[in-house]
């Protein structure tokens, strides 16, 4: 019989990196939910949160070096390393040390070829983003009232979340990262570790079929979980993630890694 004073086993450390257009403020509901099962160490990429200044040079590799430094500062003896969407492209370039036991990809972004985005839209977005960067308009546009109005008109997000994103993100980081997402065509750098791949049939942003084939070809030990979470959900409460990523799914991940 266990002693009444016996402590429960420590939670597994989960280092998680944000997606594009999100941060720890927006994803507080997800963090709170996962914290029931993991010791969550959420890393906001520079420029995605007001608390973290943007990088001088915005590239996948510079983001990866930042994540490496943050992980080193956490001084974790064992951890899982995960990325949400664009965050996965970043963690795939991290030099994961021996203390990183496994990888987690949540609706992972690999490159622009697997964006569920038509050629016309992709070309138009790329042109507008390039134009903004070439003429150094990022900061001015980000603060401009008309841009805020367009953002509200185009996005399905509720106004309060758009305001949070515009307040939290830095304009140059937004446009430079958008250019990476729209133009990056490099291969994914897989680590020689077990992977959990979390996909959603409700995802309208990422092409699931080629993504699934790639992971099955490249990963020796792979756990696939199908859930029902939108890529950019309108409801970001803890209850939403509890319903769409039920406890038994999380337990499957824990059992796989242990």
Structural class: alpha/beta
- CATH topology of the domain at 12-116 and 187-257, anyone? Rossmann fold
The CATH homologous superfamily of the domain at 12-116 and 187-257 corresponds to: Alpha/Beta hydrolase fold, catalytic domain
What is the CATH class designation of the domain at 12-116 and 187-257?
Alpha Beta
Portion in strands: 5-15%
Strand line-up in the sheet with most strands = 2-1-3-4-5-6
**So, CATH architecture of the domain at 12-116 and 187-257?**
3-Layer(aba) Sandwich
Compute the gyration radius: what is it? 19 Å
Report on the biggest sheet.
6 strands, parallel
- What count of helical segments does DSSP give? 11
Low-confidence stretches: none
Mean pLDDT: 93
- Kindly report how far apart the N and C termini lie: 24 Å
General shape: globular
Helix and strand topology:
Blueprint lengths: L11 E6 L10 H7 L3 E6 L16 H15 L4 E6 L1 H6 L8 E7 L12 H16 L3 H6 L1 H10 L4 H10 L2 H13 L11 E6 L7 H11 L3 E6 L10 H7 L2 H11 L1
Parallel strand pairs: 1-2, 1-3, 3-4, 4-5, 5-6
Helix pairs in contact: 1-10, 4-8
């Amino acid at each position: 019989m266990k002693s009444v004073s016996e402590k429960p086993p420590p939670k597994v450390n989960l280092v998680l990196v944000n997606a594009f257009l999100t941060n720890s403020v927006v994803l507080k509901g997800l963090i709170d939910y996962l914290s029931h099962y993991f010791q969550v160490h959420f890393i906001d990429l520079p420029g995605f949160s007001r608390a973290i200044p943007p990088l001088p040079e915005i590239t996948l590799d510079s983001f990866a070096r930042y994540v490496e430094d943050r992980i080193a500062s956490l001084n974790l003896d064992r951890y899982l390393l995960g990325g949400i969407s664009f965050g996965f492209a970043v963690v795939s370039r991290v030099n994961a040390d021996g203390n990183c036991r496994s990888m987690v990809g949540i609706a992972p972004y690999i490159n622009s070829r697997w964006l569920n985005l038509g050629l016309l839209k992709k070309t138009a977005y790329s042109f507008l983003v390039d134009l903004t960067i070439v003429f150094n308009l990022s900061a001015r546009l980000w603060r401009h009232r008309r841009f805020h109005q367009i953002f509200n008109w185009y996005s399905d997000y509720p106004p309060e979340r758009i305001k949070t994103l515009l307040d939290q993100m830095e304009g140059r980081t937004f446009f430079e990262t958008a250019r990476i997402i729209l133009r990056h065509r490099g291969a994914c750098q897989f680590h020689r570790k077990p992977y959990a791949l979390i996909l959603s049939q409700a995802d309208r942003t990422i092409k699931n079929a080629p993504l699934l084939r790639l992971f099955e070809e490249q990963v020796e030990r792979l756990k696939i979980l199908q859930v029902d979470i939108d890529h950019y959900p309108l409801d970001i409460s803890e209850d939403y993630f509890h319903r769409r990523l039920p406890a038994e799914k999380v337990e499957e991940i824990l059992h796989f890694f242990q």
